[in-house]
Amino acid sequence: MDAMEVLQQAKALANAMTLYQETLPPDLTTELEFLASAKEELFNECEEKWKEIEELQSKLALTETEACADPELQTTYQHKAMMAELHYLEEKEPHLISENGDVLAAFSMDERVNRELEMVLSCCQAQNENLKKTLNREQEWLQEQQELGQVIAERAAKVKSILQDYSEARALQDMKVKIQQVKVYQENLLNSMGTFLAQHFPLPQHQKHPSKKTKMSIDVHENVISLHEILETLMNKILEMPHDPYVTIDDTFWPPYIEMLLRFGIVLRHPENPNKIRMEAFHQ
């Protein structure tokens, strides 16, 4: 039973008993005693109802305090409370605050009490209508919020997917650009190295002439490779086969070039086979 409804009925009953007592003749002592007893009983019942109302209000306040921590939970709680209250008001049967027939008979003797009860009924009906309208508004608002949340979630997922695709495409494009730049830089570096080596370390000339000091013939091999080719072979070997980077020296490797590279620490000999050399791992 609603707290305001119980309180209004209690006040109406008390006013009715007081008004009825004032309208009685002074000589009706028996009826006065009856009314006083009925009034006292009615007040006792009102006190009991009031205690029940206070307990229910304390539990309700505690529940609302716990629900206020989360706005979404509070909205859900209000919706459930309104639905429960509406269902209770629709299903409940008329309830009398007092079951004593004497009290009810005394209460029904005054027409003004009936009018007050009609006013209470009208107020309850108006309150029910207001609760229904409020419930409808809350349901519409909840549905709008749910639809809005769904739309926002879909847009957020779409934007996230677009950003992810864009990031992957951008990263792939940047990687391709960097790889192309490295290839261009490598090509320029190799070209510069080739130009430098061709200018300062040319191929030995094939010549056969007597030496002024020894009067002997000196023969330089025709099939020797350039210093550029030697370095390129060593670099390719150490990059492609790092587990076995050694190259076997044959007649195509001009000994002065090999000695120069060994002297400056550019290449190293095999610790067990002096006919094998490898380039120093400068890239590690």
How is this structure best described in words?
With 284 residues, the protein is mainly alpha-helical. It has seven helices and five strands; from the N terminus they run αααααββαβαββ. It has helices spanning 3-23, 29-67, 71-91, 101-107, 111-200, 227-240, 255-263; strands spanning 208-210, 217-219, 247-248, 267-269, 276-279. The chain starts with a helix and ends in a 5-residue tail after the last strand.
Summarize the topology.
Layout: H1 3-23, H2 29-67, H3 71-91, H4 101-107, H5 111-200, E1 208-210, E2 217-219, H6 227-240, E3 247-248, H7 255-263, E4 267-269, E5 276-279
Antiparallel strand pairs: 1-2, 3-5, 4-5
Helix pairs in contact: 1-2, 1-5, 3-5
Name the helix and strand elements from N-terminus to C-terminus, one letter apiece. Answer: HHHHHEEHEHEE
What can be said about the biggest beta sheet?
A: 3 strands, antiparallel
Low-confidence stretches: 207-220
> What is the 3D shape?
rod-shaped
Report the portion of residues in β strands: 5-15%
Please state the CA-atom Rg, rounded to the nearest Å: 54 Å
Number of strands: 5
For the residues shown, what is the average pLDDT? Answer: 76
What structural class do helix, strand and pairing data support?
mainly alpha
User: Strand sequence of the main sheet, in spatial order?
Assistant: 3-5-4
Number of helices: 7
